[in-house]
Amino acid sequence: MAVVFVLWLREVKKYLRSRVQIVASLGTPLMYLGVLGFGLGPVFQRAGEGNYLQFMAPGVIGMTVLFTAMFSGIAMLWDRQFGFLKETLVAPVPRLAIMIGRTLGGATVAVLQGALIFVVTLIAGFRPVTLVAVPLAFLVIALIAVIFSALATAIGSSIKEMQGFQMVMNFLVLPIFFLSGAIYPLEGLPRVLGALTRLDPLTYGRRRGARSADRENAFRRRVRRCGAGGGGGPVRAVRCVAVLEN
């Protein structure tokens, strides 16, 4: 446990001491919130989908956690280049403990970064439905961070070149983000694309986090589905009950 704690503390201290990294990592989420959140908000609302910022904010937080957790694997390449990883591996400690410590450190940094973006979304106008939903959302964020930080650690331990790691990350991160439904609803997608979204682990995390924060928009979409299609009064009433109970 001491090895896990030391490696975890090292990753957290590196993050807290790097103010440039903290500020620079806010750039992409702020761009998505500013350009897409407010730019496409009127279009999203005219389409009957409700408040786009309420829909998009959980996705932007998930994007921040995903990017931070995945790119934590770069630290392993730097450690290999400067010899710290070699010294760690020759130490009389289990390698599993080394991986757990680095994974938890990267996940903690990702959660801290997600918390910063959560505060930014609150300033921008995002409002959770209830305060009880916030701890549940951060539990989901923590699970997402651990999963993708472990994946980044596994990839970083098997790749020795920085260029190869960046190519693998771009090949994985961008499809995972865009297929998660962070910036667009997943209803009505083609079958192939819908199947890919179900294979994306971030889809379930974003959906769970948004379910507690975006109930108003979800209810509006269900009401619209309820009124769509033909049928008389009894048929429509039965369909409305079935839709609204899902």
The tally of helices reads 14
Strand percent estimate: under 5%
Low-confidence stretches: 227-246
The helicity comes to over 70%
Biggest β-sheet description: none
Approximate shape: globular
What count of structural domains?
A: 2
Ends: how far apart? 45 Å
H-E order:
HHHHHHHHHHHHHH
Radius of gyration: 21 Å
Seen as an oligomer or otherwise, the chain set is single chain
Number of strands: 0
> In terms of structural class, how would the helical and strand content be classed?
mainly alpha
Mean pLDDT across all amino acids: 77
Keywords:
0% strand; 14 helices; single chain; mainly alpha; 246 residues
List the helices and strands and how they pair.
Layout: H1 2-17, H2 19-24, H3 27-39, H4 41-46, H5 52-70, H6 74-82, H7 84-89, H8 95-124, H9 133-158, H10 162-178, H11 191-199, H12 201-213, H13 215-227, H14 233-245
Helix pairs in contact: 1-8, 3-5, 5-8, 5-9, 5-12, 6-9, 8-9, 9-12, 13-14
Task: Describe this protein's structure.
The protein has 246 residues and is an all-alpha fold. The chain is 80% helix and 0% strand. It contains 14 helices and no strands. It has helices at 2-17, 19-24, 27-39, 41-46, 52-70, 74-82, 84-89, 95-124, 133-158, 162-178, 191-199, 201-213, 215-227, 233-245. Helix 3 (27-39) packs antiparallel against helix 5. The longest helix is centred in the middle third of the chain and has 30 residues, at 95-124. The termini are far apart. The relative contact order is 0.13.
